[in-house]
UniProtKB/TrEMBL annotation:
The keyword Cell cycle applies. It comes from Calyptomena viridis (Lesser green broadbill). GO terms for cellular component: cytoplasm; nucleus. This is CCDB1 protein. The gene is Ccndbp1. Residues 1-39 are annotated as: Disordered.
């Protein structure tokens, strides 16, 4: 739906009718390409202007919500003015996003694009909520939608603003590391708590006590899972070490260095979901085939990650020791997993 409003088009409710364009151009933000070479790009100016446009959009969301919070409803002329102000605010946000050239790094661009899209989609939701809510009072849905736009606009302050793409890649790696840490801690807790990893699930009222042995790990399962845990911990160590290397040595002073940082972030984004998939396959009843397939996938991502980092500018000779150590750790756990599963496939 659009943010543009047709004045006087309400069907007896006194509300304005949305035009079928305007904010629906969110697809242009998610699919379009920022411009290159139109004028010299200044990152400080970009951040300042982006922050200003997000702030204006937040204010327009407040004005729009208040205008439809209680009778009497805005006149046709006021509706037109509200519509134009909202649309101009959104177009300004999208325009500033398009200032950001691809040469500044795809990781940074994606973060800014996601933040911009969240603001646009939040305004779409607010507009739809206003159009569908009763006119007598401010609805809970309208309050939530208005707060959603405020929250989306505030996210601009959390975007990484360090040295061009380097800060964005640091942020992306930290997010991946957080996901992997959570998966490792969850699985460690399940293994320590006892034979039944589903022990915190309430008993079924009809079936009573859960006596299904498929909810338990056998001793053979635990031996296999010990090596799988070793691989998950190696994944966490890889992300932690590479994050430290990017912080210490990452540079965004040339197209080659920017591209290398983007590649590191892209590979890291494959590691965290593959760790989750491995963890899910480790719950009982344990099937060795999916465990082994997930382990092979995890090994491929880790080896690719380590190899790429070792050949990039973030890994000078002083960092090669931990790369070799983690290579050995991955190989060691892979060999143990292959031995455990070979006779069960």
């Amino acid at each position: 739906r659009g943010c543009e409003v047709r004045a006087g088009a309400g069907r007896g409710s006194g509300r304005a009718e949305p035009a079928p364009r305007g904010l629906s151009s969110v697809c242009a933000v998610t699919e379009g390409e920022p411009g290159e070479g139109r004028e010299p790009f200044e990152l400080p100016r970009f951040w300042d202007t982006l922050g200003q446009t997000f702030q204006v959009t937040s204010q327009e969301a407040t004005k729009l919500s208040l205008a439809f919070s209680r009778p009497p409803l805005p006149s046709a002329e006021d509706c037109q003015k509200l519509s134009e102000d909202v649309q101009n605010a959104i177009l300004a946000v999208a325009t500033v996003y398009y200032w950001l050239p691809k040469g500044q790094g795809t990781t940074l661009r994606k973060m800014v694009r996601d933040a911009t899209t969240e603001v646009v989609e939040g305004m779409i939701q607010l507009t739809d909520t206003i159009l569908s809510a009763p006119v007598e009072s401010l609805s809970q849905e309208q309050l939530i939608s208005t707060g959603g736009v405020w929250e989306a606009c505030e996210q601009v302050s959390n975007l990484p603003r360090g040295e061009y793409n380097q800060a964005a890649v640091v942020s992306a790696l930290a997010a991946c590391l957080g996901v992997v840490k959570d998966a490792v801690e969850e699985m460690e807790q399940a293994l320590v708590e006892g034979q039944d990893p589903y022990g915190d699930i309430m008993e079924d009222e009809e079936l009573g006590f859960r006596g299904n042995r498929d909810t338990y790990w056998s001793e053979a399962d635990r031996q296999l899972l010990g090596s799988c845990m070793g691989l998950m911990k190696a994944s966490k160590a890889c992300l932690k070490k590479v994050l430290g290397a990017v912080k210490a040595h990452g540079k965004a002073d040339s197209p080659e260095h920017i591209a290398q940082l983007d590649d590191i972030a892209d590979i890291a984004n494959e590691i965290s979901p593959s760790v989750d998939e491995l963890a899910l396959s480790m719950y009982p009843p344990v099937n060795p085939l999916p465990v082994r397939l997930n382990v092979i996938t995890q090994e491929a991502f880790l080896m690719n990650f380590l190899h790429f980092c070792r050949t990039s500018h973030v890994c000078p000779p002083s960092e090669e020791g931990w790369v070799q150590f983690l290579n050995g750790a991955v190989d060691h756990n892979m060999n143990k997993i292959k031995n455990f599963t070979q006779g069960q496939l």
